[in-house]
Amino acid sequence: MLRDxxxxxxxxxxxxxxxxxxxxxxxxLASHSSLQIVHGAKLEGFRTAVITLRDRVWFYRQFSHLxxxxxxxxxxxxxxxxxxVSKLREWYSIIVPHGSYVEYVGLSCAETIPIPIxxxxxxxxxxxxxxxxxxxxxxxxxxxxxxxxxxxEIDRLVIVKLPGAKGGRGxxxxxxxxxxxxxxxxxxxxSVIESLDQVVIQEYLIGATAYYHYFYSIILDRVEILSAxxxxxxxxxxxxxxxxxYVVELDLDPTFTVVGNIPLVLRESxxxxxxxxxxKFVETAKKYIKSGxxxxxxxxxxxxxxxNIKVFEFSxxxxxxxxxxxxxxxxxxxxxxxxxxxxxxxxxxxxxxVERSSIEKVLT
Length: 364
Ligand code: AMP
Fold this sequence. Notes:
The protein is an alpha+beta fold. It contains 14 helices and 13 strands. The chain has helices spanning about 10-15, 35-45, 55-60, 80-90, 100-105, 105-110, 125, 130-140, 175-190, 235-240, 245-250, 270-290, 330-335, 340-355; strands spanning about 25-30, 45-55, 70-75, 95, 145-150, 160, 170-175, 200-205, 210-215, 220-235, 255-265, 295-305, 310-315. The strands form three sheets. The chain has a five-stranded antiparallel beta sheet. A four-stranded parallel beta sheet has the order 3-2-1-4. Strand 2, helix 3 and strand 3 (about 70-75) form a beta-alpha-beta unit. The longest helix has 18 residues, at about 270-290. The model is unreliable at about 1-5 (pLDDT under 50). Bound molecules: adenosine monophosphate. Adenosine monophosphate binds next to strand 6, strand 8, strand 10, strand 12 and strand 13.
């Protein structure tokens, strides 16, 4: 079953108890959606800090009006160094983990860093394991693609996914067990994967991709649909521009590497189902993961020609597709009637929690 008993020795409560909640800083890794996060934090009146790689400092300095403090590191893994941690504590920092957080700092540092995290740190190990992820979706009663093991007969087109947040890199399509094993053996040889059970094999769904950005507010006790996007992926989005005969001639093995995001508004008649899936996911996460979902998450889906939605992946954190909506989205405006990015929504939640003396509810 899903793990929910990690990181037991950490006593984040006592660290937070020593914080001056009127002088909190929102801290994040300078990458992914960090500009959105610090922008939102500033709008909500917080101080901000970024941990940045040395060769990117010059870039983030262009946004010094949004960033009060910089910590310069040579490797993301330095986040857990004692001097970095003590600086962050000195500034009463709350770390906002984004989609690249675990990939950059590694699971162990991500989970055990003795700094309060906005959201559930218990989610990180689930997200690092493709099988546990799909199990959580399935347990939520959300339709998912058919999942195959390496022992199964492959009876249709499948997509084979490697572990971790690879951004679609290295995924491949296949139609037989032999083809999958042959390709995976190459990955094993080049140490891209450590074992064959690390991969997930899913039915390849035909339809339109759609990614929904939600926010679960513990403080307001509601799930909000903040926005939606489509990923722009190389090569698969380029293949569609070629006449079929050239696709066949090239015998191309397309990748799904994300290169950007495209905004999306949905048919309004789809919204009830999308919100229902978001709520189901939040309710199930509460049962299986300590602290459940807190704040932003994303369900990634294919909508077929009959408007059926199947979810093939999720993220338990802020996704880069939300960068489209730093000024807010059509949906976030419906809830807030003011520009409300996901980054700002995170800071608003922290502010609401402080005002209601409930900060411990949004931190782990
Ligand atoms: P992921 O890393 O799981 O978000 O997948 C990267 C991309 O692969 C997605 O944005 C889709 O274009 C594609 N993809 C992943 N899973 C499926 C699936 N089961 N059916 C069709 N396309 C998929």
